[in-house]
């Protein structure tokens, strides 16, 4: 349409390229131009942010050395560019992202009208190129996002695998250590070497803590892998609670645990898992209220649901932390250096209760204490 012998479009690689080289597309029917293809790439040194239109040999001569440089093959061997037009392509951001160049072997080819027409075409091309670059950027950002996601999933998988192996590996030696310590404790109490007894009991206490942590890790990795086994049966809550309290009584603490309410509820669920949840709640109530002397346990039934509440008289939990504490690995910073724990107990308990089609929650008042509770349906379908 412009009457050119050839048209070259130079454009930048999208910004993700480290080296912003100009690519080019050439359109021509002229065999002269085709004979000089190699030189055409050299035209990229001519890219400016100005429109240039040369129509006569004189103008060309003036610009010749500036534009075509010395030794330009396009004007040797019988073929010479005599009409030339260069229109920069400027992106929305004002950056020159390319250039359209037209050339012809004859003078006077590119009129003012031709320039306007080319400017129109270029402004449309700019929109298209801008969009293409935007699209490229979007695609590459998405690709990067997917790559990172894949990497994170892979790392997460490895972490889970590591946790699973580490907790399994720790469990056996720690459990046998506990066994040996118990034998030793019995032996020492029987034979009367009383001086060692408190030391053995302290060691026992520490081993219990390690077992508790290892169990949390083990439960977490089983939970994540969907391998936490549940065996549903009907059982009396009073029996489970008695076991829980007996279990906790083995540990050293000064709190008085008092039970209120209806102890006759029979619930359907996994007895060991429910016991694990209750122990976790009572353990926390004791652990996080070191200056208090009481923990209250409330039992009730309401509209087909069984409810268990554990109330402590500790410092309570700030409002903004109430949701966070049920998250995996969350530990209240005010406690983390004083108490042992991995921030897994409430998360695991919450998941166990969910598996029983129930809900878990907390109410807390700062300075007064907290009440953790769960409800599960009395009559539920185990699946
Ligand atoms: P851990 O006890 O190992 O930190 P949990 O998941 O059982 O893990 O508890 C998460 C966090 O919730 C604790 O670090 C603590 O900050 C807070 N928390 C739990 N129970 C209580 C409680 N009874 N009183 C005050 N804070 C509590």
Question: How is the topology of this model organized?
Answer:
Layout: E1 6-12, E2 22-28, H1 31-35, H2 37-40, E3 52-54, H3 57-68, E4 83-90, E5 96-104, H4 112-191, H5 197-224, E6 232-236, H6 237-249, E7 256-261, E8 266-270, H7 271-287, E9 294-302, E10 305-312, H8 333-336, H9 345-355, E11 359-365, E12 369-377
Parallel strand pairs: 7-9
Antiparallel strand pairs: 1-2, 1-5, 3-4, 4-5, 6-8, 9-10, 10-12, 11-12
Helix pairs in contact: 4-5, 6-7, 7-9
Bound molecules: adenosine-5'-diphosphate.
The site of adenosine-5'-diphosphate has 19 residues, from helix 7 and helix 9.
Describe the structure.
- With 383 residues, the chain is an alpha+beta fold.
- It has helices at 31-35, 37-40, 57-68, 112-191, 197-224, 237-249, 271-287, 333-336, 345-355; strands spanning 6-12, 22-28, 52-54, 83-90, 96-104, 232-236, 256-261, 266-270, 294-302, 305-312, 359-365, 369-377.
- A hairpin with a 3-residue loop joins strand 11 (359-365) and strand 12.
- Helix 6 packs across helix 7.
- The longest helix is centred in the middle third of the chain and has 80 residues, at 112-191.
- The two termini are 74 Å apart.
- The protein binds adenosine-5'-diphosphate (ADP).
């Amino acid at each position: 349409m412009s009457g050119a012998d050839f048209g070259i479009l130079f454009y930048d690689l999208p910004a993700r390229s480290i080296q912003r080289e100009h690519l080019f597309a050439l359109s021509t029917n002229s065999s002269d131009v085709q004979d000089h293809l190699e030189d055409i790439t050299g035209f990229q040194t001519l890219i400016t942010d100005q429109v240039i239109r040369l129509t006569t040999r004189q103008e060309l001569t003036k610009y010749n050395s500036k534009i075509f440089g010395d030794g330009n093959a396009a004007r040797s061997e019988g073929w010479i560019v005599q009409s030339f037009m260069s229109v920069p392509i400027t992106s929305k951001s004002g950056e020159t992202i390319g250039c359209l160049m037209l050339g012809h072997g004859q003078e006077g080819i590119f009129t003012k009208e031709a320039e306007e027409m080319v400017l129109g075409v270029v402004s449309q091309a700019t929109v298209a190129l801008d969009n293409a670059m935007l699209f490229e950027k979007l695609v590459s950002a998405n690709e990067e996002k997917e790559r990172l996601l894949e990497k994170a999933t892979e790392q997460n998988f490895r972490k889970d695998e590591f946790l699973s192996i580490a907790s399994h590996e720790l469990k056996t030696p720690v459990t046998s250590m506990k066994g040996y310590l118990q034998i030793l404790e019995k032996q020492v109490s029987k034979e009367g070497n009383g001086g060692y007894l408190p030391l053995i009991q302290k060691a026992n206490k520490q081993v219990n803590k390690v077992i508790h942590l290892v169990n949390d890790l083990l439960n977490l990795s089983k939970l994540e892998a969907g391998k936490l086994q549940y065996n549903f049966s009907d059982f009396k809550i009073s029996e489970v609670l008695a076991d829980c309290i007996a279990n906790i009584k083995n540990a050293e603490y000064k709190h008085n645990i008092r039970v209120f309410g209806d102890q006759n509820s029979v619930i359907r669920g996994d007895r060991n898992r429910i016991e694990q949840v209750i122990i976790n709640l009572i353990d926390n109530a004791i652990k996080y209220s070191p200056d208090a002397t009481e923990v209250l346990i409330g039992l009730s039934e309401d509209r087909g649901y069984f409810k268990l509440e554990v109330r402590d008289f500790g410092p309570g939990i700030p409002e903004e932390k109430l949701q966070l504490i049920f998250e995996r690995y969350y530990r209240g910073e005010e406690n983390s250096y004083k108490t042992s724990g991995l921030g897994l107990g409430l998360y695991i308990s919450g998941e166990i209760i969910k598996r029983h089609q129930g809900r878990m929650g907390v109410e807390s008042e700062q300075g007064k204490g907290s009440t953790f509770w769960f409800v599960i349906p009395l009559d539920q379908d185990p699946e």
